[in-house]
Amino acid sequence: MSEKKCQTIEEKQYLVRFNADTKSHLTVMDADICLTKCPDKICTIFCPAEVYKWEEIRMHVGYEGCHECGSCRIGCPHQNIKWEYPKGGHGIVFRLG
Amino acid sequence: MSEKFDCIVVGAGPAGISCAYELAKAGVNVLLIERGEYPGSKNVMGGVLYRKMMEDVIPDFWKEAPLERPIVEQRFMMMDKESAITFGYKGMEWGKEPYNNFTVLRAKFDQWFAGKAVEQGALLVNETVVLECIVENGKVVGVRTDRPDGDLYADVVVLADGVNSLLAKSLGFHKEFRPDEVALATMEIIKLDKKIIEDRFNLEENQGTTIELFGDATKGILGTGFLYTNKDTLSLGVGSLLSGLIKHKIKPYELLEYVKNHPMIRPYIAGGEPVEYLAHMIPEGGYKSMPKVAGNGVLVVGDAAQLVNAIHREGSNLAMTSGQLAAETVLLAKERDDYSESTLNHYKTRLMSSFVGQDMKKYKDSTHHFDKFPQYFDKYIPMMNKAASQMFTVDGSSKWEKQKKIWRDVGSAGEKIKLARDAYRAWKVMK
């Protein structure tokens, strides 16, 4: 590992155990806001698990890989994300840290 | 099912477990609710557990708790792109009883700690989310969970639900936090042979090091990185205010990779294998962001009450003390059979006169100050590095000449005045 080597977010997420619920605990409340009022789509940048991905005209929410940190709820410039905890026992399961 | 408890504690982290432990020990019928599969499964910290506040709850805990390493050395690195000024303290008194602090892995530690509360008689229920507090006549009387028929009642509810603090928010105890009131931290647990760790960090068995990283670790934006030694893993992480990540459009996992590949850090982790990746928020708004902490039938503890001393990277210890003081208050309320805000405010009084409240007050302006004036991280740290490089490079010029050059490099007279002013301001917010 002496040469510069960058691990991708996909590789990082692969190290984490998830027990995903069938239903998303993250909801974009008004899809129009992302499309028309949010040029930066900053959630796609600061989300530490790349849960939010912009797909041409809509926001894809990969809630299955969410770390439940809460940043998107606080960081969304339009307060457009409804954020709940996944159902008890579901979601991310940290084994170490 | 409408079960009634003396006390319900929401969240099995250091604050909630400490509170439940103390109450159970005093014979109170206490329910501890955890949303994860087990306590610790949702919990993240860099990894420093302070002995004193833990010992206040469980004396001699180090004899049986799952700890990683007692810390004998604390280092600080002021980093530029290809250099660092490092200072620190190492002392053998930290390597023996009663120790100063330890690295821990939270998934293991929190499970053990919660188990101790159960041994005292607390009832622990995992895999249960508290959706809201049940409020009747202006008083919290219980919690609504996501279980079928999941309403549970208690004389008093202690909110230890962590940094997101959704329950206190829904009670109107605080507004939604702003991006400059929370830090977002990411970290990796990196597996590395025990012997290699000890060689690289100049340690003997059962000794550990913590290194805090400033400056280029966060590309000059307000935040810190950390590198801590565990038994056979390293914890390497980086955190910065969410507002900083937003402003500079930084992807947190790319920042973490940047730190991993930094020439000052890379040799420490070389050959290591990442085994877990974790992200979590840290409440860093400080004293001014603290919510109301006591209401009718309810108390707020730990991260949920923003109890973090970001300057000294302390949090779990503040959490434990707040949990203990909440327990003490519940016992007082029980004795008086009065769970009104006026009785429960005893908690606030005790909290604010303890080291928790005092330290929160001491640093009340620090985060805001360093956030408002980014030059400390993006200008002065590189400047210090250049000055050190100048001074210690032997190139034939005299030391007087070197000093003159360093002084010249600070910039114009105006720049020098600015530097002096910033130094004074930093002292003022930290004193």
From TrEMBL, chain A:
Keyword entries, A-Z: Electron transport, Iron, Iron-sulfur, Metal-binding, Nitrogen fixation, Transport
Highest taxon listed in the record's lineage: Bacteria
Species name: Fictibacillus barbaricus
Pfam families according to UniProt: Fer4_ETF_QO
Protein name: Ferredoxin-like protein
Function: Could be a 3Fe-4S cluster-containing protein.
SUPFAM superfamilies membership: 4Fe-4S ferredoxins
Keyword hit for Transport: yes
Assigned protein family: To ferredoxins from P.putida and C.tartarivorum, ferredoxin I from A.vinelandii, ferredoxin II from D.desulfuricans.
InterPro entries listed in its UniProt record: 4Fe4S_Fe-S-bd, 4Fe4S_Fe_S_CS, ETF-QO/FixX_C, Fd_FixX
Residue ranges of every copy of the 4Fe-4S ferredoxin-type domain listed in the record: 57-86
UniProtKB/TrEMBL annotation, chain B:
Pfam families tied to this protein: ETF-QO_FixC_C, FAD_oxidored
Names of required cofactors: FAD
Record protein name field: FAD-dependent oxidoreductase
Family in the record: Belongs to the ETF-QO/FixC family.
Organism: Fictibacillus barbaricus
Taxonomic lineage of the native organism: Bacteria, Bacillati, Bacillota, Bacilli, Bacillales
InterPro entries in alphabetical order: FAD/NAD-bd_sf, FixC-like, FixC-like_C
Domain FixC-like C-terminal: 367-431
Transmembrane feature ranges: none
UniProt KW keywords: FAD, Flavoprotein, Oxidoreductase
